[in-house]
Amino acid sequence: MVSRYVPLKFRWSRAPGRAPSRVLAGLLVVLAVLLAGCGAGTSTGTGTGAGTGGGPSSAAVATPGWAKGMATVPESRLPAEARRTLALIDRGGPYPYSRDGIVFGNYERHLPKHQRGYYHEYTVPTPGSHDRGARRIITGQGGEFYYTGDHYNSFRAVLR
């Protein structure tokens, strides 16, 4: 007996002209990544320990001149401990750490250069830390607020 080979034809189980769902899902992922990248201009980096809050979004807070060209973070996106420290600063204390309010030297030169005494630092408590931890709020005499979560290695201007 002679057997005949008959090739099978496969068909897509979709209507003509429609993309398969995997391709569509991939396109949606690419679109989401692109859109997320477009918002990076107002707030670069989320930082460690950044929380969510009920305050204004980064789009609602204009970037002040002193913060131009640097990473920013809306006050509402700071960790809860940093928001509490800002409230203490606004009230003028009392502060939980004896070193709160001391002059910040800006030795790393990550902040704009000013005369000594222009900047002051305040501790942002770090849960689980046995000492003051690495987080600080730095204030400037011109009304600036900066947050560092990595002990002065990097700063973000706090948008209030």
SSE order and pairing:
Layout: H1 21-38, E1 72-74, H2 80-91, E2 119-123, E3 136-140, E4 145-148, E5 156-159
Parallel strand pairs: 1-5
Antiparallel strand pairs: 2-3, 3-4, 4-5
Report the mean per-residue pLDDT as an integer. Answer: 78
Question: How do the strands line up in the largest sheet?
Answer: 1-5-4-3-2
Radius of gyration, in Å, reads 26 Å
User: Topology as H/E string?
Assistant: HEHEEEE
State which percent range the strand residues make up: 5-15%
- This entry's quaternary arrangement is single chain
Query: Helicity, in percent?
Result: 10-25%
What does this molecule look like?
The chain has helices at residues 21-38, 80-91; strands spanning 72-74, 119-123, 136-140, 145-148, 156-159. It has 160 residues and is an alpha+beta fold. A hairpin with a 7-residue loop joins β4 (145-148) and β5 (156-159). The model is unreliable at 38-58 (pLDDT under 50).
Brief descriptors of the model:
single chain; 160 residues; alpha+beta; five-stranded mixed beta sheet; 2 helices; 5 strands; 13% strand; globular
